[in-house]
């Protein structure tokens, strides 16, 4: 029986203690128990697996195809093409309900039946291998040789996790996106705060409910470069469209004479898009939109570009660069949470500590599975870290260049390992492999095609580095 004396924690025998049962923690454990016979304890603050998905707003969906998300061993969704809606013609995007149910199935049908995974929800990790049950108050301790895996370092935050980062005066009605689905008395004006993925989702949901775009105000501290979701579609049926843009991207990079010229060319070839051609974006965070969504968002004419909000009073909005009067009843929707912040990089492998971070831009679950594969290999820590160099989540337009270079450099190192190449060739989460022209099945021809692709990407990385150096 658990020991309820907080000064004497109960010992637990495990090889790994994974802190966090979100997407990265789940993807890491899935690959780890596939590649090794390790015993794992998963500690999570929430009541169910899924991390931030368990608190996300009800209308959120993935921004990438379901087929490339989740854990390696279990497919998410049916790889179906949406027939209706603003994502019609593109691969399905799992809803928050589907994602939460999926992670619960992974836990109940894959992890726990293995007999090598112990799941401790509603528990707080205190450090030094010790965690506290928030339900019983009992404490538990893993042994000194147990590796501690931090699956929370990326610090994914949704609006429901924290109060707005600005002052709100008495009488101001401000809600999170979670509350929108329960409102039946929308006022004359609705103001969405934040121009990231959450702000985009809130605007699109309001438009889908029949709210006239003239009733919407959008507080956009920064405009963002966006990705046409058609370019994030693996499979032969999308190869022609994506191939043209990939060719255009290669030409754009090689012909660019400056960073500003580069972005103009990337927009011309369709690699990046923006909502307002009169405003130069300074943000890039990997957000995707379908062209139907893009058109819908462009219907919102009242976009306020005066920096971040400092305070909202009943009669005015105070922003970094000015004020905006409030002249009619207004509902404010706070979408300003930094969903995936740009975190400082730390070594992934450091003694008995493993800190999960992205090793490919904006591909968190793939990265966690890749790190687990590397962990399972008989390598020294220095070599593991060479293979798993973190790529911070992008935030600015310039980060588009930095992350592209980092991705190419990581891929170059991975090519040195036949074991990793074999894993990448069959990994379900390595879905970007299947974007664009299909690779040949014949081994020699496939190797030649991969070598050509790598040569093209290496040329792109070299040119981007030169552009950064020249300013």
Secondary-structure map with pairings?
Elements: E1 10-12, E2 16-19, H1 23-35, E3 40-43, H2 96-111, E4 117-120, E5 123-127, E6 130-133, E7 139-142, E8 147-150, E9 167-168, E10 173-175, E11 189-193, H3 197-208, E12 216-219, E13 224-228, H4 239-255, H5 259-268, E14 283-289, H6 291-297, E15 302-304, E16 309-313, E17 316-319, E18 322-325, E19 330-334, E20 349-350, E21 353-355, H7 364-375, H8 381-387, H9 397-414, H10 418-426, H11 443-470
Parallel strand pairs: 1-7, 2-3, 2-8, 3-4, 8-21, 9-16, 10-19, 11-12, 11-19, 12-15, 13-14
Antiparallel strand pairs: 5-6, 6-7, 16-17, 17-18, 20-21
Helix vs. strand class: alpha/beta
Largest sheet: 6 strands, mixed
Q: What's the shape?
A: globular
Oligomer description: single chain
Which value, in Å, is the CA radius of gyration? 23 Å
- Residues in helix, %: 25-40%
Q: Calculate the terminal CA-CA distance, rounded to whole Å.
A: 64 Å
Distinct helical segment count: 11
Spatial strand arrangement across the major sheet:
4-3-2-8-21-20
- Total strand segments: 21
Mean pLDDT: 95
Poorly predicted ranges (pLDDT <50, ≥5 residues)? none
Portion of residues in beta strands equals 15-25%
């Amino acid at each position: 029986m658990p020991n309820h004396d907080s000064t004497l924690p109960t010992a637990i025998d495990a090889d790994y203690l994974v802190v966090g049962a979100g997407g990265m923690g789940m993807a890491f454990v899935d690959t780890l128990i596939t590649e090794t016979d390790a015993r794992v304890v998963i500690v999570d603050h929430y009541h169910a697996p899924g991390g931030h998905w368990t608190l996300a707003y009800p209308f959120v969906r993935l921004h990438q195809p379901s087929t490339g998300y989740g854990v390696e061993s279990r497919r998410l969704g049916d790889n179906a093409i949406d027939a209706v809606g603003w994502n019609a013609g593109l691969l399905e995007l799992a809803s928050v309900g589907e994602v939460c149910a999926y992670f619960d199935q992974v836990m109940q049908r894959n992890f726990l039946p293995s007999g090598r995974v112990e799941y401790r929800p509603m528990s707080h990790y205190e450090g030094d291998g010790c965690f506290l049950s928030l339900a019983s108050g009992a404490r538990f301790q893993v042994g000194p040789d147990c590796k501690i895996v931090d699956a929370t370092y990326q610090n994914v935050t949704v609006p429901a996790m924290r109060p707005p980062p600005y002052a709100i005066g008495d009488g101001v009605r401000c809600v999170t996106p979670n509350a929108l689905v329960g409102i039946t008395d929308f006022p004359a004006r609705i103001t969405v705060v934040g121009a990231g993925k959450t702000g985009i989702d809130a605007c699109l949901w309001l438009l889908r409910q029949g709210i006239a775009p003239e009733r919407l105000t959008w507080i956009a501290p920064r405009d963002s470069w966006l990705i046409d979701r058609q370019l994030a579609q693996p499979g032969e049926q999308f190869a022609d469209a994506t191939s043209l843009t990939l060719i255009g991207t290669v030409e754009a990079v090689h012909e660019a004479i400056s960073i500003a010229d580069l972005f103009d060319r990337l927009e011309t070839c369709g690699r990046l898009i923006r909502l307002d051609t009169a405003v130069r974006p300074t943000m890039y965070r990997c957000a995707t939109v379908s062209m139907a969504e893009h058109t819908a968002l462009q219907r919102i004419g009242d976009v306020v570009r005066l920096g971040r909000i400092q305070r909202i009073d009943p009669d005015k909005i105070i922003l970094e660069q000015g004020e905006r009067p409030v002249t009619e009843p207004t509902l404010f929707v706070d979408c300003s949470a930094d969903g995936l912040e740009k975190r400082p990089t730390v070594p992934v492998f450091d003694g008995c500590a493993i800190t999960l971070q992205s090793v490919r831009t904006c591909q968190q679950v793939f990265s966690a599975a890749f790190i687990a594969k590397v962990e399972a290999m008989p390598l020294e820590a220095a070599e593991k870290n060479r293979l798993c160099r973190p790529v911070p989540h992008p935030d600015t337009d310039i980060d588009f260049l930095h992350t592209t270079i980092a991705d190419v450099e990581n891929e170059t190192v991975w090519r040195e390992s036949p074991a990793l190449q074999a894993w990448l060739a069959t990994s379900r989460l390595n879905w970007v492999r299947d974007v664009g022209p299909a690779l040949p099945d014949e081994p020699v021809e496939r190797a030649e095609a991969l070598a050509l692709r790598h040569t093209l990407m290496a040329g792109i990385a070299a040119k981007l580095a030169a552009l950064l150096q020249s300013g």
